[in-house]
Design goal:
Structural class: alpha+beta
Radius of gyration: 20 Å
Order of helices and strands: HEEEEEEHEHHEEH
Number of strands: 9
Strand content: 25-35%
């Protein structure tokens, strides 16, 4: 029997075990970050069948952080996203932002594609709205920077929707820095600012 025939199966087992342990540690770290974040803001944390969920009110805005399942960008299989959702406390126009590589989803009638004029944003996203002036006003440099994620693919948003019923921003559920306390706060600040009765920027 060759040495490689003995070592190869063991190497594969060690590699798989390392990957599993690493994934469990990352999942536990993400969960702890959300637990601590919820406690700090006086929100409620719970484990649901879909994954961790945080709910509460921030600056007068009902807010939820939780997992959603969507088609994979490759159009094969599915991916898990973390969604930050707020309930608007003021009238808002309908604005949809999608990753340019995402599978086409349902589109509301009356929306037209708009180029924002920011190269990084326009390269990464498709933007749809019926109110160009409002879209340009809401998608200010701070929000665009948050969506683009500083040029890091793993930190870039996957999608955003703004309308009269909800505002949400989706991020990759498994990678990126959006589980870190400072980034969690920045994303929540963006969502609550969009939803707040008075523009706070």
């Amino acid at each position: 029997m060759r040495v490689i025939d003995v070592l190869l199966p063991g190497t594969v087992i060690v590699f798989l075990a390392t990957v599993i342990v690493s994934n469990v540690r990352r999942a536990n770290a993400r969960r702890k970050a959300l637990v601590d974040f919820a406690a700090r803001l006086g929100m409620t944390y719970r484990d649901s069948p879909q994954g961790p969920e945080v709910e509460g009110t921030v600056r007068g805005v009902p807010l939820r952080i939780g997992r959603v399942t969507k088609p994979a960008l490759s159009r094969r299989g599915q991916r898990s996203s973390i969604r930050f959702t707020g309930r608007p406390q003021r009238p808002l126009p309908t604005i949809i932002v999608r990753d340019r590589n995402a599978p086409n989803g349902e589109m509301l009638p009356g929306l037209a594609e708009l180029r924002l004029g920011d190269a990084a944003f326009d390269d990464a996203f498709s933007l749809y709205t019926a109110d160009e002036a409002a879209a340009r006003a809401l998608l200010d440099p701070a929000l665009v920077a948050q969506l683009v994620g500083g040029g890091q693919q793993s930190d870039r948003a996957e999608a955003m929707k703004i309308d009269a019923r909800e505002v949400f921003i989706d991020y990759d559920g498994l990678s990126g820095t959006h589980h870190e306390p400072e980034r969690l706060e920045r994303i929540v600040d963006v969502v609550t600012t969009l939803c707040a009765p008075v523009t706070l920027r």
